[in-house]
């Protein structure tokens, strides 16, 4: 497999630029990179995901086994001998283990094969079960293959997913997207041994993982991605965890916008063994104390739980553990009660949760304040309670629009017509209307152009400094967090892994994100 | 009313309407009489059409469970007739009775719909279908005493068609009827309709109303803003059901008969297609759209009858009506998501 | 914990619905005072009439498309084919074969179109198929009530209304009546068992069972379990769904033909009415849900549902001295079963 000058854009935003790399038969090629570095995009292209075609295809050349290919859909990629193990499982929950492993490669009865062709031939269940069990044994797993996937643990599912791919006899290239992410260390090592063995039998493997230690152990070559481009590449022997960590984060010069402060105040909110069951972003036993008046950054690789905190507090997902806010225990994560108590959450997914797209900008800003705190309302008594006092509301909105420089045609413009940056400003304006004591913001600068980013960070700083609002920013933009935060907590697997100061080195952050213990006094 | 734009269904309907009016003119029908009747038809069906709005705005989709509200209203009507109440007292008594009955039915219906979020339409359809036979039990077994309501001989229970002639037939239609030349304007009827429109308009300006609209537009947003989604949806469903009950009372007093048993089934598809003709996309719907849609659809219905009788085969009228109705609903279902919220 | 699990297993939907039906029909049968032989013969007739229609629902359910109310369109295409052939006065075996050929081709074309439509509205298939059914009914009526004799010339004047336009309400099928019903008719003390037809229904059941256990069937099951994930596994889900709908429609058309030839009289405008609702209710009565359906659900369901169906008017008569109440009861059971299945299923999904 040979890739030359591969590029891909999503709506004009480059995700991959001029990637060239190769995977030889019998080689394990590792790829590391932080979130949004383009690893997943690469895999999507190689596995023929329909997403790529729908968003306009890709540029560049891919040749496979010497021939130039153009991957249009998954079925084609599969036919060519490319197999992929997905990070989010591609297993069908209502089918049994055996059915999943053997899907579209079922053993069928010879007689009906001849009668109706292989597609409409009767399936030989016994042989399928045996063959599925054999594959699982290769992975050192002994399971009843008649169990439905829905009843399995994530750990086992990962193995079944892998079994499905390696069952294929025509497999030439295996794409692994963090196959060990959900596994325990022992299981992960076990699996790696299997991959090694397969590579020795002539299979090419493209291996993506955040576990740098694993990379060092098994890869013949490692390439580091950052912002959609290749940063560096190491041959086996030169791979060192620290180099990888440094290259992954990169050296970015930043001006410290926020002067360093020592916060020694009372705790504003503290979480004890807090857990949130948000699919794909689970928090599991988090212990964290946020002090009054500080800005706390919360970062992690995607899927490790940073986004779930706000949603958990607002009761969007089932939660467990204890939360103590202003010395009182919060019994139930109820959005209304928490907003009344001065907590407000701005979501990461603005389109889905952050705005009312068909409502005007003014309505968006005053909505929550009006509904929950009865701001800007005139009362005629029930049932016609709470008509809006337009004059008061408009004055307020006008003030905010001017302060935040929200670009809009009028206050009545629909919020869906605003740019992403202005939508985010509207969200912050809505939060400010509520005058919260604690604000939890998720990915405040995602999908926003540079100038608006600066403004939004400045807004958050201003709110913190003038209103003494405690702010928690969950973001994967480490650079930005370092500029505004007083402390930065790094999460791994839904827990706080380490709390670092903003002036900690890039390597330290890189190691912490990957869940590797680093020693503080080693500097590069 | 802002962003009201003409979409394919409206174009087809408008062309159809113009052709029909042209035909009516060619066939020398009395257009003034038709116009007079169209006003009555508007209100007669218009309240039922309006009743769809709260659920549409709450994001619960088209209310295919409209028979729930309709049967509630019918119970109110039957009780009023049972006590031989006439004139306005009869009509308002039936409204007064319908409201609590529909409120209760709506509450139950809403609780069920909250459990089937995302599939309200199919569930509503079958809840509506099952309410009909259930209510048939009621019509058959309930101890009504007014002889004029019961089967004349032998049979048990209420008649399928109870005449309102001796009670409150046309009581609203005739109230404040103004005649200018040949044109008759049923001012009382229109005022009643206007009052309901005004009520809805004010309701959606109130805090609860705005919460309903926000919930329909973006449920996750509302939830994050601390709004009790289940409660808000329940209110919308109850309101829809109550309005449907009032709608059937208005309909019956115009029509002159209380139609029981399987009759409610034939009423709700036209109502739904009317609101779609008016420009609703199956989501947020403005009152103006409901009024316009009701007027357009009813006028078409009105025109097709005499025209079809003159030039076509009589049965074709009814078939054409249903054809139009279902095509419009199907169109809306197919294109809804594409025309909905665009990110 | 263990106890709860066992209780859950005992009371899960697959068992509880058939048990309730069994109980209800037994009770209604007792009240009705009808003889066992009569009920049994009737149920057997219904089993033959409706069997294939009910079976035609299974594959769409497995494909995750819910109850396919559009089988009524398949039924109508069979009726349309029949009317066309009768109007051309093709009798005997040739007639039967051309009806079969025509109805299959019609239902394939319509199935293809409906399949495309349903691919646009994934997740809302059921409400759309219901509306499609209503719409198709209007078109059907328009064609045969207004089109026949005006635009479409009809050779056979017998089936046309006296005014020269439109087909009569009832068309006699004496030329095809009971051609295959009387094969291998087994008589045991009043019990009439048309063995051949039972075998035909079971054969269709076997065919569907076979299909579901081929690679094609696995793909259908995969698409039903998770459409995007199936796509990733290399299955063309959209095409598959179209195939599923076509298959369902063809089966429904054949089922309707069996139904009509069994009755022997053809009510042009009403024979297909409620074919969808009653078939769905029967399938659900057998313990299926809108997410999973097996052959045995269909076969058991027909027996349970139709037993209740046959005895309830008489039971109503005996209990309340009003046969109508029994009829209301059975329509309530039909609609209520579907409503119940919809409500219960979504609830389980949310968990």
| Average pLDDT number of chain C | 81
Number of domains of chain B: 1
Architecture (CATH level 2) name of chain C: Orthogonal Bundle
H/E topology pattern of chain B:
HHHHHHEEEHHHHEHHH
Series of secondary-structure elements of chain C, N-terminal to C-terminal: HHHHHHHEEEHHHHEHHH
Radius of gyration of chain B: 20 Å
Distance between the terminal alpha carbons of chain C, to the nearest Å?
Answer: 19 Å
> Structural class of the helix and strand makeup of chain C?
mainly alpha
Overview of the molecule:
The complex is a heterotrimer of chains A (524), B (343) and C (351). Chain A is an alpha/beta fold. In chain A, helix 14 (361-373) runs parallel beside helix 16 and helix 16 runs parallel beside helix 17 (450-467). Chain A contains 19 helices and 22 strands. Chain A has a 6-stranded mixed beta sheet, sandwiched between helices. In chain A, strands 16-19-20-13-21-22 form a 6-stranded mixed beta sheet. In chain A, strands 2-1-4-5 form a 4-stranded antiparallel beta sheet, with no helix packed on it. Chain B has 343 residues and is mainly alpha-helical. Chain B has one domain (8-336): ABC transporter involved in vitamin B12 uptake, BtuC. Chain B has 13 helices and 4 strands. Mean pLDDT of chain B is 82; it is low at 338-343. Chain C is mainly alpha-helical and 351 residues long. Chain C has a single domain (19-350), classed as ABC transporter involved in vitamin B12 uptake, BtuC (Orthogonal Bundle). Chain C has 14 helices and 4 strands. A two-stranded antiparallel sheet of chain C has the order 1-4. Chain C has a two-stranded antiparallel sheet with strand order 2-3. In chain C, strand 2 (185-188) and strand 3 (191-194) form a beta hairpin. In chain C, helix 2 (13-32) packs parallel to helix 13 (295-320), helix 3 (36-55) packs parallel to helix 8 and helix 3 (36-55) runs antiparallel to helix 11 (237-263). The model of chain C has no long low-confidence stretch (mean pLDDT 81). Chains in contact: A-B, A-C, B-C.
Give a quick set of tags describing it.
heterotrimer; B: 343 residues; mainly alpha; ABC transporter involved in vitamin B12 uptake, BtuC; two-stranded antiparallel sheet; 13 helices; globular; disordered C terminus; C: 351 residues; two-stranded antiparallel ribbon; 14 helices
